[in-house]
Amino acid sequence: MLIDSFDRVVDYLRVSVTERCNFRCNYCMPEKPFSWVPKENLLTFEELFEFIKVAIDEGVNKIRITGGEPLLREGIDQFIKMIYDYKPSIDLAMTTNAFLLKGTARKLKDAGLKRINVSIDTLNPKVAEEIAGKNVLKNVLAGVDEALKVGLKVKVNMVPMKSVNVEEIIDILEYSKQRGISIRFIEYMENTHAKAEIKGLKSPELLELLRKKYNFSDDGFDGSSPSHYYTMDDGYKFGIIEPYEDDFCKQCNRIRLTAEGNLIPCLYFDEALSIAQSIRSDDIKGVKDILKEVIKTKPEKNRWGTDDGESSTRAFYETGG
Ligand code: SAM
Ligand code: SF4
Fold first, then answer.
1. d(Cα 214, Cα 201) in Å, to the nearest integer?
2. Which CATH superfamily, name and number, covers 12-156+249-319?
3. pLDDT digits (tens, 9 = 90+) for 99-126
């Protein structure tokens, strides 16, 4: 079992399989210029899988594939099958922008994927184009329909932003509710890659807005999920991810692996250790030692909002969010 210095059990690994993306969401990526990590620096699926086996053997029981956009990486369904075959009971999930999901949802489900989280920040095609830099909404919504049809569990992620999509918060909640999908609102996290003008909506402002239309109770945190949950009178639950709040990190159970092989103990911290060399030289003991070292260095709290207004330089599209 992996236990950090603050007695938190770490059993959740997020694996970013690529930093590349077919969207340019203005809260996540700059429009240009871009210098992607050279392809030869990326770990192959076989190399990523070598690490995943070690992590599973040490107690990881939940894996989320993310990116960039994970569906851009060819053979992603075979990668999922490798993990599923190694441990079929693993909670295997993916975070995707859903643009390519319509044609792939069935393959992903058959390979062993259980759940997907999809980013839906708007239901207005023009606003979607403003956010993502291209006309994406039709494909995204078709992807969600397909995922539901093949039996994948779906969650929606929305990042509420002032003067962009605040008016749509209720619409997106209703869209999700009608489809039996749960929704999580993610507080916008400032970072140097995002468009400078973006202003996110903090949790109290969001709750005030929702209270105008709904009654709901505060359920607090549920297990190790980073979401603060609320239940509406009709039983529908929604979540808010509030990294600026004091209690956000208390139940943190996750580490992150980037496509280059950097193992990151906390989303905000720039510290990371690379497993690439050990993996490439088949040094499994070395890989285990690095994993344990990263768990040991996991900080008690993230630093969002504590650096006197300075933004993080770590890119969401690199870490996978
Ligand atoms: N491309 C996939 C997607 O968009 O779902 C997966 C990668 S994306 C980096 C993972 C999550 O990070 C998404 O839910 C996205 O909304 C979130 N995200 C990206 N930039 C963010 C920011 N500045 N603040 C809060 N959430 C952010
Ligand atoms: Fe791509 Fe996801 Fe970032 Fe949007 S949020 S640019 S879809 S990685």
1. 18
2. Aldolase class I (3.20.20.70)
3. 999 999 999 999 999 999 999 999 999 9
